[in-house]
UniProtKB/TrEMBL annotation:
The lineage of its organism: Eukaryota, Metazoa, Ecdysozoa, Arthropoda, Hexapoda. It is a single-pass type II membrane protein. Residues 107-339 form the Peptidase S1 domain. The keyword Nuclease does not apply. It holds the Pfam family Trypsin. Belongs to the peptidase S1 family. CLIP subfamily. The gene is TRYP_2. It is found in: Membrane. It comes from Pseudolycoriella hygida. PANTHER family: ACROSIN-RELATED, OVOCHYMASE 1. GO terms for molecular function: serine-type endopeptidase activity. This is Trypsin-1. Keywords: Disulfide bond, Hydrolase, Protease, Serine protease, Signal-anchor, Transmembrane. GO terms for biological process: proteolysis.
Amino acid sequence: MTRRVNRTAYLILELVYHSQGIIYINGTSIYTEVQIPRAISPTAHSVQMFRDDSPGNNETQIDKLNNPFLQWIAGVLGITTTEKPILTPPETCDECKCGIINTKNRIVGGQETQVNQYPWMALLLYSGRFYCGASLINDRYVLTAAHCVNGFNKDRITVRFLEHDRSTEGETMTITRKVKRIVRHASYSSSNYDNDIALLRLDEVLKFDNLLRPVCLPTPGKSFSGYDGIVTGWGATQENGDVSVTLMEVTVPIHSNSECRQSGYGSSRITNNMLCAGFKEGQKDSCQGDSGGPLHVKNDTEYQIAGVVSWGEGCAKPNYPGVYTRVNRYGTWIRSNTKDACYC
């Protein structure tokens, strides 16, 4: 998943090479500022990728292009190769509840962990390698960060549900789906990560049960300032560390945008479409590998997805909270692009 990077400057050596359908960019330090999302490179190499209700929509079905390099260019530029499909609402939807966590426990190494506690949690794999997180919001779509899919071939993306320990097979009965369509927000900016939000339509409908459930969409218009946010993911537990094999969670305080603009980011880098969460002194944070995953808030007994892990400056650095996409700015956009799905 993508993770925030230091306000370090990079001279882009533009060492651009293609392997397994992905473009990589290596850089060395120099004098321009860059901010990097919290995703990890889905390859065997330890190369880090650079990383409303507005009706913007972008169908990035760039897989129709035959040339892999052109696929990447088309994705970055937002070029579409297919028209937006007509979405037919389902005739019937089964009754279900969103945002209800599971409480099945198990003991590992003397510490109690929750297995499948967040039943909407999904991990994204590219050519079989974990690189980002996502959240199930209905029976056909997951919500993730735009930078997790920008320039990627949908045919190489796999979405896995009910995973807990990535290093152990058979611990849980996981569910796997391929991606039928990528819907990236048309106003996504790869320069400042504004509108860093995307939807993935699954190739098959999911059936909800006692284990698998979607997260609730957030209350419209609410700032969530002062709430505790719960971030979940398989990202690194410390800056420049290895990603976790088990699903982790961290609780961080949510700031108002005015507070966040008084942080080390200043007033210009935080847009109204962003949400900041973290301790002023650092301590806890999302990190590399958490990109695309959820920041939850608890509303009575249900959990809502208030944010999507987007970017930041390092991990858990003092005066640099984590930055998330503010989901309730996109309620109309999400609903209009998921009309063919059943919500709880």
